[in-house]
Specification:
Elements: H1 2-24, H2 46-59, H3 70-87, H4 92-106, H5 112-134, H6 145-157
Length: 162
């Protein structure tokens, strides 16, 4: 039962966090977003957030088999995230690397649209890694090495207990 709750929490958080962050962001605020450093990363714009949110709504909740090992479920969630970002026109892995870089270099200067994208990624990484940590599974090895390093950086910058 605990596993099904944590998987449900991941799915609900994934869909709800963007909706919440969009609702909290006033639409009349203007900003100038820097272009992403990593090719294919979601830019820090309201348009990107709307595209990602629409892709999540269209994709629905990922189909997960709770009897599978945590690594298999994590891979399914990771594939789901990559598919959603791809549907929105972005790369999930590149966005992770972008957020990691920005958290390392300018975390004190993050502005509202930046926080919207970065906050979503950080929250999502925390939820996914919590599941792995609770099962004592090294899910970082499921990423390409450069993306795993970005995830480590996000976890470190956000004080996640690893």
């Amino acid at each position: 039962m605990k596993t099904s709750i944590s998987i449900l929490v991941i799915a609900v958080f994934t869909a709800a966090s963007l909706i919440f962050m969009i609702a909290c962001y006033p639409s009349n605020v203007a900003f100038a977003a820097a272009p992403p450093r990593y090719s294919g990363a979601a830019p820090y714009t309201e348009e990107a957030v709307r595209k990602i949110d629409a892709a999540f709504k269209q994709a629905g909740t990922p189909k997960l088999d709770l009897s599978e090992p945590v690594e298999e479920r994590y891979l399914r969630i990771l594939e789901f995230e990559r598919s959603v970002y791809s549907s929105a026109g972005y790369s999930y892995d590149a966005t992770l690397k972008e957020v990691a870089y920005d958290l390392q270099t300018q975390s004190s200067q993050l502005q509202k649209p930046h926080v919207t994208v970065a906050g979503y990624i950080v929250g999502e990484v925390h939820m996914m890694m919590s599941e792995c940590q609770s099962k004592k599974t090294d899910c970082l090895r499921l990423y390409p090495s450069d993306v795993a390093e970005a995830v480590r950086s996000i976890l470190k910058a956000s004080n996640f207990g690893m």
